[in-house]
Amino acid sequence: MKARTHRSEQGRTDRRSTLRRFLADERGVTAVEYGLILAMISVAIMATVLSIGEEIAADFTLLSEKLATAK
């Protein structure tokens, strides 16, 4: 039974050290941060384009109506 106890203690130690290494590993964190920043910038650009796009479409519609009635 001692061998089995030793094995389970060793297994627990291995799992703990693996978990510690996983939690301490910071590889890829910067890429995730850049991805989040890029997503926020993209949302801001899309919102701006949509709001400006509606204003420009309204301006062209008004211009088109004025040109049609000017004949």
TrEMBL record:
The chain crosses the membrane at residues 31-53. Keywords: Membrane, Transmembrane, Transmembrane helix. InterPro entries: Flp_Fap (IPR007047). Pfam families: Flp_Fap. This is Flp/Fap pilin component superfamily. The lineage of its organism: Bacteria, Pseudomonadati, Pseudomonadota, Alphaproteobacteria, Rhodobacterales.
